[in-house]
Amino acid sequence: MQLSTVSAATIAMWEEEAGPAPIHGLGMELVLGGKIDVHRHYRGQVMTAPSGVVTVKVGGRAYLVAGKKGVWIPEGIQHEVTASTDVKLRNLQIARQLAPALPHSVSPILVSPLFGELLSSAIEGNQWFGANSREAKILDLLVLEFQLANDLVFSFPEPRDLRLKKICAALHKNPADQRSLTDWADIAGGCTRTLERLFRKETGLTFAQWRRQLRLHDSIVRLHSGQPVTSVAFDAGYENTSSFIEMFRRLTGRTPGQFLDS
Questions:
Q1: Cross-strand pairs, 26
Q2: Contact 195, 162 (CB under 8 A)
Q3: What is the CA radius of gyration of the chain?
Q4: Sign of the torsion angle spanned by Cα atoms 156, 158, 164, 168
């Protein structure tokens, strides 16, 4: 059954039912626009999306989870989830004592075929298990297969300044908007130099880099929705497909087709 909203109270209830088990596995489906409200876990969490795309927001940064790209969220960190398409999610919570070497910060991860199969087995297996059990060995191998992904490709920061938020909100609605930061300064307020300085300070990116990153994320969502590359390129603000493919290849190391197949 596809869900539209999962509340923090529901998450808390599921956690209570699982108790202090060393792992807690859960699969679910969300409809386009479906949300999992802001919540946290007392175990770390691996989240993947075998089908569809979700955006995971942690503080002021957004992470894309799609296909062979997942995210690791350490224990105790608040996050929320929005379905960018209809999506199937796989979540596995892991107690820190079982995997002390896993990162203590939110990290995009690569989901290899083996990692995906191990994750499925761990989710479907027993939450309580002995030291030499099949479940324990699956988890050991899962941790060994844990690989970090390129943070630049799979996440981008959101600014806090109200003027920048106004600009970014408009670009989220229309990533193809070609207006320069000078044009936006007349609309949002402030001078171009001030806004550029704020973009660098709050996001670590220039305005042009931030907009390009947004376009990349929007394109990944559209590609996973089955839209043709030509229309995705146009919606990203590119006049021709070849320029879009070159941008995509330069940022991800792969063409759009290769990206979906990887």
A1: 91
A2: no
A3: 20
A4: positive
130 with 73, same domain: the answer is yes
Is the distance from CB of 56 to CB of 81 less than 8 angstroms? yes
Hunting for tokens 């190391």 — which residue is that?
A: 253
Alpha carbon distance 262, 256 (integer Å): 10
The CATH number of the domain holding residue 235 is 1.10.10.60
| Structural domains in the chain (count) | 2
The model's pTM: 0.89
Domain end, chosen from 153, 185, 216, is at 153
- Shared domain for 144 and 224, answered yes or no, is no
Q: What is the pLDDT of residues 183-201, one digit of tens each?
A: 999 988 889 999 999 999 9
Please give the span between the terminal C-alpha atoms of the chain, in angstroms, as a whole number.
28
- State the residue for tokens 């087995």: 121
| List of residues 6+ apart from 162 with CB closer than 8 A | none
Residues 42 and 67 reside in one and the same domain:
yes
180 and 89 assigned to the same domain? no
The predicted model gives 19-38 an average pLDDT of 94
Domain region containing 137: 2-153
Q: Which two tokens stand for residue 54?
A: 């979700």
Question: What DSSP designation does 75 have?
Answer: T
